[in-house]
Amino acid sequence: MLSLAWGEIEIEGVGEVKDAVLYPGGGGEWDWRVTGTRHSPGIQPADVEPLLAAGATSVVLSLGQQLVLEVMPETEDYLAERGIDVHIAETREAVRVYNLLADAGVRVGALLHSTC
Question: Which Pfam families does the entry mention (predicted)?
Fold first, then answer.
């Protein structure tokens, strides 16, 4: 279960982080610097690879609370080629969708941006 405020995502069993990476069985702080991600062009295939490696069959990607974060078309293609169910939404909606899927027992992963 997740909760969200500006600049803060609370992950049950983990605590508070600014941006979150979640995968089946775990999660924590999402450090964009690891892959060089920026608001534009946005979330890269390398960002979602750890979610798939952890067994996610569904992925939720947030665009930020002000829709500033983008998702590269290559990322959407990468997930589609692997048959992954993808949900891309404003962060509050992304948290809602993640919680619904997780509560339903779906092997869901997510990348969540808590601010802009």
Answer: DUF498
Tell me how far apart the alpha carbons of residues 105 and 116 are, in angstroms, rounded to a whole number. Answer: 30
Per-residue pLDDT tens over the stretch 77-97: 999 999 999 999 999 999 999
Residue 43 CA: distances (Å) to CA of 9, 31, 61, 85: 18, 12, 8, 16
Distance between CA 95 and CA 11 in Å, rounded? Answer: 11
| CATH number of the domain enclosing 48 | 3.40.1230.10
Q: How far is CA 111 from CA 42, 57, 61, in A?
A: 11, 14, 5
* pLDDT above 90: residue 25: no
**Is the Cα torsion angle 73, 78, 83, 84 positive or negative in sign?**
negative
Length of the chain measured in residues: 116
pTM for the predicted model, two decimal places: 0.95
By residue range, what is the domain housing residue 57?
2-113
Provide mean pLDDT across the span 54-64: 98
Q: How far is CA 79 from the centre of its chain?
A: 13
